[in-house]
Amino acid sequence: AQTVTQSQPEMSVQEAETVTLSCTYDTSESDYYLFWYKQPPSRQMILVIRQEAYKQQNATENRFSVNFQKAAKSFSLKISDSQLGDAAMYFCAYRSRPQTSGSRLTFGEGTQLTVNP
Amino acid sequence: DSGVTQTPKHLITATGQRVTLRCSPRSGDLSVYWYQQSLDQGLQFLIQYYNGEERAKGNILERFSAQQFPDLHSELNLSSLELGDSALYFCASSGFSGDQPQHFGDGTRLSIL
Lengths: 117, 113
What we know:
The complex is a heterodimer.
Chain A: E1 3-5, E2 10-14, E3 19-21, E4 24-26, E5 32-39, E6 46-52, E7 60-61, E8 64-69, E9 74-79, E10 88-96, E11 105-107, E12 111-116
Parallel strand pairs in A: 2-12
Antiparallel strand pairs in A: 1-4, 3-9, 5-6, 5-10, 7-8, 8-9, 10-11, 10-12
Chain B: E1 5-7, E2 10-13, E3 19-24, E4 31-38, E5 42-50, E6 53-57, E7 64-68, E8 74-78, E9 87-94, E10 103-104, E11 108-112
Parallel strand pairs in B: 2-11
Antiparallel strand pairs in B: 1-3, 3-8, 4-5, 4-9, 5-6, 7-8, 9-10, 9-11
């Protein structure tokens, strides 16, 4: 079974600065997806960014980018120019290709990000 | 707005009771997933349906059951409720292609008194 680990329960960053959230995972599969979801105080689950394991290029969405290290099974999220609205719980998630063990998401424990003005 | 609708938003009930949570997926999405988010267990996958059929099962208790109807909406039934069932229950949906990400509803917060 796949596992996802987020070793930073809490992180803080100053507004306009850059912060990196860490995530490691364990899998024996070679083809899969990785995601970062954001959960603000409203409790919604919002997709931030996704990475396909067969793509070497790191995904980028505006101020959000990832550092995907497949051999190390590491998938970190970098938030640049942090804004107050970025304050939330961030979850790293793993998903197999659907032809294997279904399309379920396996989540890490989450990292609570605080943005200081 | 993700396009996934969950009702009700909040549910308060007592131990031993039975409740039904409802989910309407995004238009065109065939897959529905249920997740439970609790303080002690984190976010856990419960069950997946694809076009009316059960596709995958996670850590879903025997007291819990789900189904997906011909119009693709889904219901999660929780029975013989215990205090530990208090949690936020999310429904997510995704499209026909397995490459598409899952989009989450706003969740149903279940409180057992």
